[in-house]
Amino acid sequence: MVTNKKDKEKMPSGVAVAGRAKKLLNLFSYQAVGTLLVFLALILVFIFFTPHHLFVDPRNIKALAKLTPDLGIVALGVGMLMISGEFDLSVSTVLPFSSYIFVLLLRAGINPVFSLFMAMGVGALLGLLNGLITVKGHIPSFIATLGTMMFWRGVLYVHSRMWPIGIRAYFPAGSSFEHVLIGEIGGVVPAQVIWFVVFALILGVVLHFHKFGNWVYATGDNKEAARAMGINTDRVKTICFMIVGTLSGFVGVMQLLRLGSFAATQGLGFELKAIAASVVGGTSLMGGIGSIAGIFWGALTIQILENGLILMRVPVFGISAFIGLAVILFVVLNTYMRRRMMMMR
Amino acid sequence: MVTNKLLKAGRDITSKSEPILELRGICKYFGGVHALEDVGLELYPDEILALVGDNGAGKSTLIKIIAGVYQPDKGEVLMEGKEIEIRSPRASMDLRIETVYQELALVDKLDVVENIFLGRPLTKFRWFVNRKRMVAETVDILKRLKISIPSLKEPVQNLSGGQRQALAVGRAIAWSGRIVILDEPTAALGVEETRKTLALIKQIKEQGASVIVISHNLRHIFEVSDRIIVLRGGRRVGSRIKSKTNIDEIVKLITGSL
């Protein structure tokens, strides 16, 4: 399996160039192009049609920038898991559960940094459990995580009695820990945005350049083939579940700091919104297709859609209808574009 | 050249050269079904061994044991005389045994290069996929095996059946040093594609690897193989050197009318 130099020289140079181009394409995968276009169109619509052009008001943009990473970071994990062919509905429980663990540790006088890692660890553990139930029990993850979602939610509600717990009593305002998680860089860019981008970059590298990413795609597309070629598909899936759990744990704490108080209902509805964001970003529900760039834009799009509609004074309960409609339109568009791309080849 | 031929002839008759792979008394049960009952198999260096038998005779089960997909319930596996256990597909690959499954084990949405290196991409800095080297290797492999595929960037779902087959076989040849197993390599192929695939199989032997091939098509078997092992109802019912048998006899062994 070692190329000798002679053959390498004979290799058509076009292939190497194409390889490099593909790497770039991977980052801004063609599956994300449709999403990006609609994303830009949405922004234009909202700029012109929100009253007083509120959408581009710096205050709104800042609020959006603080809000979006919550869903976005969770969606990055959920999307990657979907590429491996599984779902995780339990994020909306893992998130407040980790947040609760963080508060409890904090209240017990434990260092916040350590508490954060513990919260993420608990998230990872719950993810591991989801993974094990799914792969060892040979049941669809949709069902497995539906079960764990309801189970942990019940545990959380009973144990916390659904009382909010303010963190200010245990946690001085303006600590460096808080600055790192939810501060503002130069008083302008919220730290959440940085975290979103950092996680996107890390997962992007893992998915598109690391060999693990290769296994994720193979596992999601054709599990039997992947297994026949020596990929431990169970392990790949379980690791993806753990990544989702870890990210949910992180977001749980990040959101907690922003809200200033633990709420048992943190992250409610994230499970489907994260899937919606992934799908809008071109991730296939069947597994094997998707990209981090797409999921990134997808999460932004969902959040901007929601925000814009609120600003346009669409009744809160009506927003869900629009998002639902948007998800369907996006998927139709993405599917159509993908087919066009196929034909153009 | 002459001595070489003589040696081969001698081995064919007496089977004195040591087998590269040997299975002894293999039993495999699925619940109450005896898929394999006391089956032996020996594969010699530089040999194309055909495994034939009717549906349900146990051919696929047998090769899946060699490929590490199944574990035998009884019996032993020897490689170059040493007893081994093949616990997983990965373990089999580590022994430099490559298997081409009937369903090819290609990942449709990944491209040609990614499929050739499926599960074991070349890396740089230990972890990162080294696409450039993989492309170079792929070009090299395809050229060496005279497989023409229009674009390496193409997801393999856009390739023809013959190209997909060639790709799966090519992958096995490229990776294997010792043993290549092919399950129904000519099923669902056109005439021209079949011809090419059979040529590829002969090429594996020229590269110095041994081959185990399963096929229902006895004409193809007789075209490429050196020796034929016949299974029936999970038992081995015969082993014939190709030059000393004919299709008729093999058919009779398969159907049990001998």
Question: Structural class of chain A, please?
Answer: mainly alpha
From the N-terminal CA to the C-terminal CA of chain A, the straight-line distance is: 30 Å
Return the CATH architecture of chain A: Orthogonal Bundle
Q: Tell me about the biggest sheet of chain B?
A: 6 strands, mixed
Mean pLDDT reading of chain B: 86
Number of strands of chain A: 4
Give the helix proportion of chain B (percent range). Answer: 25-40%
Strand order of the largest sheet of chain B: 6-9-10-3-11-12
Largest sheet of chain A: 2 strands, antiparallel
Give the spatial strand order of the biggest sheet of chain A.
Answer: 1-4
Number of strands of chain B: 12
What is the terminal-to-terminal distance of chain B? Answer: 38 Å
Radius of gyration of chain A: 21 Å
> Percentage of helical residues of chain A?
over 70%
Supply Rg of chain B: 19 Å
Q: Which chains have the largest interface?
A: A-B, 37 and 42 residues
Strand content of chain B: 25-35%
Relative strand content of chain A: under 5%
Protein structure class of chain B = alpha/beta
- Secondary-structure element string of chain A: HHHHHHHEHEEHHHHEHHH
